[in-house]
Design a protein that fits this description.
Strand content: 15-25%
Helix content: 25-40%
Order of helices and strands: EEEEEEEHEHHHHH
Number of strands: 8
Number of helices: 6
Bound molecules: zinc ion
Distance between the termini: 67 Å
Amino acid sequence: MALKYGAPRPTIHIETSMAHQRGTGNRTVGSGTARHSGLPDNTHPEGLCPRCRKQSSFDSSGPIPVTFGDGVVADKDGSYSHVVEARASVLGCRNCGQGVVVVEQLEQDTSPLIRGGKPLIWRGIHWWPMTGAVVHHAVPEAIRFALQEAEATFAANCFRAATIMARHALEAIAADQGAEKGKLVDRVKALADCHKLQPNLADWATEVRLVGNAGAHGPLDNVSEDDAKDLLAFMQELVNYLYVLPFELQERRKNKP
Ligand SMILES: [Zn+2]
């Protein structure tokens, strides 16, 4: 019987609310110690919500088979049904109330067909929206779109393209903050000098500029997955500092009696 099995469940370690889940496999983002249980699926309906970016629990719509293999399974009544290779469902976040689509496959080496009666374990392999692909609406449109495209291309393992789009987002941020002329490095430095950028973020931005240049104008074989991942993690922190936190502070003040 031709059965195929999905990739193991990604395990994610994060230290900020805006860290990313990247591609498949085990990932470690940043250097912090806080850890969450990864993205949700029907086996473990809790974890990071890609919409509200909070640790949450989820209610499932119930899985629907979407892909069938060549094999068949004999049912008790003597009938046969096709082996399901992948299934999809919508998980409703109990925090934000939004839905997250998850596609699941059987976890490797857990099928009763080869292991003698162990329970089937389904694990999520794809999620929509992708983590990081939802950029806060407080972020200006030009920056938001560039950042979302950077996230999408990263998720497709296009690291150079992700780097180029993230650099565009950084250029748009500099322009939005009033640093419209000169080399990007000088514009970022100007933002730090006039206290629009927190000093640590400004230092970090210098590293980002180098990665951005490698993607946009330098040798195209010089951008690694880690380079792009670090760049996108920085960009998320930057927009959080410049746009999201001030917006949320303003909203809190508005709602005060
Ligand atoms: Zn949510």
